[in-house]
From TrEMBL:
PROSITE patterns: NHL (PS51125), ZF_BBOX (PS50119). Keywords: ATP-binding, Chaperone, Metal-binding, Nucleotide-binding, Nucleus, Repeat, Zinc, Zinc-finger. It is found in: Nucleus, Nucleolus; Nucleus, Nucleoplasm. This is Midasin. PANTHER family: MIDASIN (PTHR48103:SF2), MIDASIN-RELATED (PTHR48103). The keyword Amino-acid biosynthesis does not apply. It comes from the Eukaryota. InterPro entries: 6-blade_b-propeller_TolB-like, AAA+_ATPase, AAA_lid_7, ATPase_dyneun-rel_AAA, NHL_repeat, P-loop_NTPase, Znf_B-box. One of its GO terms (molecular function) is ATP hydrolysis activity. GO terms for cellular component: nucleolus; nucleoplasm; preribosome, large subunit precursor.
Amino acid sequence: MRDGHWLILDELNLAPTDVLEALNRVLDDNRELYITETQQLVKAHPHFLLFGTQNPPGVYGGRKLLSRAFRNRFIELHYDDIPPNELVNILHQKCSLPEKYAKKMVAVMKDLQQRRSLSGIFEGKYGLVTLRDLFRWAERYRRSFVSENFYDWEQLLAEDGFMLLAGRLRSKVEEDVIIEVISKHFKKSVDPLALFTSPGGLATAECLKILTGPLHEEFHHLYWTPGLLKTAVLLYRAIQFDEPTLLIGTTGCGKTTLCQLIAKLLRSELSIVNCHLHSEAADFLGGLRPIRNRNENEEQTHCLFEWRDGVLVECMKRGQCILIDEISLADDAVLERLNSVLEPERKLLVAERGGGREVKDEVIAASGFQFMATMNPGGDYGKKELSPALRNRFTEIWSTNVTSDDDYSLIIDHNIKAYLKGLLDIRDGDQYCFNANGPCNNLYRLLRGLQLKRPIMLEGAPGVGKTSLVSALAAASGHSITRINLSEHTDVSDLFGSDLPVEGINGIKFEWRDGPFLKALRSGEWILLDEVRERESNCIEVREVQKVLYSVQCPSCDAEPIELSSLDEVESKFSVTPKLNELRDIYDSMKESEGIHCGNCFIASAASYCKDCNKTLCNDCIDAHKKWSEFATHAILGLEEALKAPTESMIEEEAEEKVASHASAVLSAISGREAEIREQGEAVKEEISVVSRAGLEECKVKEIATIKHMPEEKAITFELSIELPDHELHLDLPASSISLSIEPASANTTKPSQVIDARVIPTDKPRVYQVICTPVIRGHHQVHIKALGIQLKTPSSFTIPFNPYTDQAVTPIRTIGDLQGPCSVAISDDGHIIVSECSTSIVSILSNEEKLKSFGKGTNNIIFNSNYGLVITDDGYIIVADANNHRIQRISMDGQHVTSFGCSGSEPMQFNCPRGIAISPVTKSFYIADRNNCRVQIFNCDLSFFCSFGKKGAGNGEFESPQGIAIDSEGFVYVTDFSHRIQKFTHDGKYLSKFGSNAGQLSSPTGIAVDNAGLVYVSEYGNHRVSVFTSDGDFVCSFGEYGTNENQFIQPHGGITFDKDGLLYICDTGNNRIVMNLASQSVLEGLNAVLDHRGEVS
């Protein structure tokens, strides 16, 4: 500002509002800045200019909308996409790229922008390729050097383009899209398998030669699986062109190890920074730090603090590699501070340094500097994806995890040789017993874990011996151990240390004091972090125990525990084979070898054999062996005596003795447990009441399970039980003593009712019976039950809604035309038809013969903008979803506006294009499908907000685009999702099930209705038909096809409902009509009466 330079404020809308408001005087006409800290007024140089850049707010993470008062101080310029011809010219001039290659690359970008990425669906046309990808692609061509006279540059460009664009993708389908587009425009084939296996392609041959050659001994454990080698090649190729790289993959897939390997191959030091939630920009750039060792400096100074460069600045100056591990854990605002480092210029302005105008604040990366970063994919606990603005500055690489069993086998075979070094003999201390079964097993697993150079997590209940086992093992092996108790208040400085004030000769100074963790790390001690809690779980899974199982493990061998379900299996399944085989191997080696070595020190020759330890010992080890009180009673035999002994009989005798003693204890424990179970069973039997024959008359029937349909048998089945009066117990009778008959509840009294016989069969559930019957008509039926010849009491409300759908034929009986885009329909109690016509934004009321009235377009202050769903309340009002006005309107039957509520938004009582509406027959609550908010809102009967459920997604209980809603007689909620499925919920929005993807495959379902038998009717916008399902989601039938006839539809969009007589009304949107259908034969008898007041059949 003082020198008249041009200043660019990059990512302006990331800065806090109070910081931006401080620039107001600079942006005004007076062009001055008042510094309150120094009481100075700075006038801008005449040549000073200020520029601000930003990404659009709301699209990229952390960007906010600037206030109008601040924005109107700028001249705003909006940058559109660069035209293709200009883009070709830029590539040609900037990257020295031949024009024909530039045109092909731009054509690839334009083609990919027409497609969408599955993993970056919200990034729009930039999901598969961005402008930065295009420039990186061209830059690789410019910086490539080939000494050959003839070279296939198009093949090189095709391979580099594939690695840049497909290297980040997480699915094979998207990778195939990249190959298809590149091959289409470059006329070159790209084979991923050949590209990442030796000898490789034009772009990868050199990388593969270096990576598959001899590696540093630090990386001898590395085995090149196909996925790991592909990731390494992509990373090395990007590093060759000084591109900042971002490796994304699951935990343990080798991201950090590959970065360390690349740094070693480049002969460069690697600095690693681990990010976390509280990472700050100062962790990368540096900051003011206390001056240490002031007394040792020749020049005394009174300053307490000095500037220390951060790790990023040091690496840039020295030309070293830096790895930002778990970069996504840091805040976006911190990471955006590093944007300039990620640009091709690779420079950084360290404004935080201060020190006056003579200090140079700009740092330019030296040759050899490489920027690498790693992260886990979003979705895991505490993990998130980086913002698109930051990610597209990196060359992103997706690192696949090892999933193949063959790969695991090869990795194990490659690394297991380093750990096969013999047995480790650790003697027990006097204060801890390692021979007990529990500690012995835990010790064995702990020792196995120590063979790997990895931290070990011990998890278990309090007091089981986790800490004591580690402490005892450290003492026995001669290692010092540091124990650190953690809590929720533990800070990083408590572990690693901090700067503390120390009083010295020249006054107070700051000195660094190591924490316990850092002290132990430097001195090579073991570290025990006690009470490490990753996160607490508030969910306990309870599982019913079906049968009693016992687990028995042999104390003399390492065999897995054996599960037993009865006493008879104890001795038959108890095996000592591992013990026998082990002893036979030792005796065979003693007989075959002349020079037997000590099995304890592995150096001296063996002189004796310890029968109890099963080990050969030298004279020195025998003396040490006898000093321990625990080993003093062991049987020591000479080698000749041991070889002459009856080996097999001695081994089997010893094994049988140990097995017998152990099995005796096991049998005793199991017998006691089964005795307890028998006692509990006798106690339960005593509580069961004896029901007399007279009391049987007072029993009642209780329905247990919902009705299920059996299409193959043309039958219906349900389960029931018989309750005792005034008891919670159920009656247990043989199925042969129960008879059942069913008759229609609405049977004509002048005609004998048609009684349906039913079969009663037992089930695997106690006191529960299954009923199978074949109804012949649709409607409610009453159930009459006799037990032992006695008629049981049946509640008057106990009826079963049957529907013989296997014989039904949905028949169109009338069409209603003169409509414009009908999308919802409802039938009033007096037979009037209310239709929502979305094409003209009106609601019409029809009689059987003509349109009575229409309202909307300003009539009586009623205005709609694409009205969709509607329902009629019990008190005769019409509730309409006014979609594009994002509100719900309540209108009287005579067309008067009563009230409206809602506005655009995502909060409660706010909508974004509401569609379907339904009223619960149970709770009288209103359910509204809030389409673009991907949720359903529930309102009480007085239209006050109750709750909402659902969110954006394809999982259970999530929506892509909710359309229609229907509620059955039990209060279950059915929601159509435009992503080809139906989801079923409880009345309060808890997810139950989904259907529509098997038989009766749905295509863009919209409208939905449930008849009084529980069948679900769904109108399909994509298939031009209506499909019928049971309430459990079983496909029943479908009817309709594309066309204009009565039994055909064109894109039925929404409305489908039943009237009180069972007639089905379907909005045939594309044909601008409503089709009335006869859903079954149950209404034939009343059809004439219906037609008398509705008009003749067309």
